[in-house]
């Protein structure tokens, strides 16, 4: 969502960053991270599909984002190609890659006086690369290639951010948005793969190979093998993506880094979190400490759903505290 544009200073802060610029920074981070993860999920779903007629895999993607009604209103058939195009280049879909990159560019435009020139230039190039895609160019055969280009473009954005942006409040809110979005999207990536596992004939399914493949899609395979070199189980892979403290895309590390940004806002900028945000933070922290068993099937699905709800509550509390004059 775009920032509302309030003009007040962040409540409780000793510096002059306006709440609307904090919100622009936060959503810029979320939108670029979301574009990368949408590209991951599209690539994952295409690979999971046996062929273009594997309707269940593509419908599971729609269900993951709770977009059933929105897609039904388009009148489009539930085929892999049409769903992929809807999530990649359809400007009428607010959850498409082109839509979230458009919103990222608009938030960056509002921050022109705060962000480096290199960062502004790159977000425009990234947006243009996707905007130039046409329906004819987006085929299932080319989908993985296109998604890889989007992912690399988004990762380059974060490289530009980390190498050029001044480490002030705006940068902290950008990182905070990235980390919340990353945690949320990792749970969605896992949920889609777990859905396919549950829907398949378990007697015929090579589960270890399946989870190894998921680790590769999450850019986690090499890191996982450093920790689990032999006799790793699928549950080990799930635990790694959820709870590892050193892997950048794990839910736990993303959340811990988000907590660290809040601590910096309080310590360096005298911007205390407030009661609602403390409660949401405590609930999310407790959720990640209470590991369910087994980490598979319906148990894993239910746990991922609860983590997603806690992340939403955490993000809402941040908005209430810092963007809405809380």
TrEMBL record:
It comes from Marinicauda pacifica. InterPro entries: ATP-dep_Glu-Cys_Ligase-2, DUF403. This is Alpha-E domain-containing protein. It holds the Pfam family Alpha-E. The lineage of its organism: Bacteria, Pseudomonadati, Pseudomonadota, Alphaproteobacteria, Maricaulales. It comes from the Bacteria. Residues 17-323 form the DUF403 domain.
């Amino acid at each position: 969502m775009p920032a509302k544009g309030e003009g007040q200073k962040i409540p409780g802060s000793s510096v002059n960053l306006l709440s609307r610029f904090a919100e622009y920074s936060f959503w810029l981070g979320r939108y670029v991270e979301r574009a990368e993860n949408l590209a991951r999920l599209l690539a994952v779903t295409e690979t999971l599909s046996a062929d273009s007629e594997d309707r269940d895999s593509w419908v599971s993607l729609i269900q993951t984002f709770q977009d059933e009604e929105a897609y039904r209103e388009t009148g489009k058939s539930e085929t892999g190609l049409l769903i992929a195009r809807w999530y990649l280049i359809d400007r009428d879909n607010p959850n498409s890659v082109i839509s979230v990159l458009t919103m990222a560019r608009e938030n960056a435009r509002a921050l022109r006086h705060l962000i480096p020139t290199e960062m502004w230039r790159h977000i425009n190039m990234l947006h243009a690369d996707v905007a130039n895609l046409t329906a004819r160019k987006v085929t299932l055969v080319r989908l993985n290639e296109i998604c890889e280009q989007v992912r690399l473009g988004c990762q380059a954005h974060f490289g530009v951010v980390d190498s050029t942006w001044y480490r002030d409040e705006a940068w902290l809110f950008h990182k905070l948005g990235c980390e919340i979005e990353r945690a949320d999207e990792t749970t969605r990536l896992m949920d889609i793969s777990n859905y396919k596992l549950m829907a398949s004939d378990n007697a015929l399914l090579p589960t270890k190979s399946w989870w190894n493949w998921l680790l590769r899609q999450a850019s986690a395979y090499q890191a996982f093998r450093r920790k689990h070199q032999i006799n790793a189980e699928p549950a080990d892979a799930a635990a790694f993506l959820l709870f590892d403290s050193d892997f950048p895309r794990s839910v736990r590390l993303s959340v811990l880094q988000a907590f660290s940004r809040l601590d910096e806002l309080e310590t360096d900028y005298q911007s205390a979190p407030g009661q609602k945000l403390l409660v949401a933070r405590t609930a999310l922290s407790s959720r990640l400490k209470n590991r369910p068993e087994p980490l598979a099937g319906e148990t894993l699905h239910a746990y991922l759903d609860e983590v997603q709800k806690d992340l939403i509550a955490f993000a809402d509390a941040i908005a209430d505290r810092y963007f809405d004059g809380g």
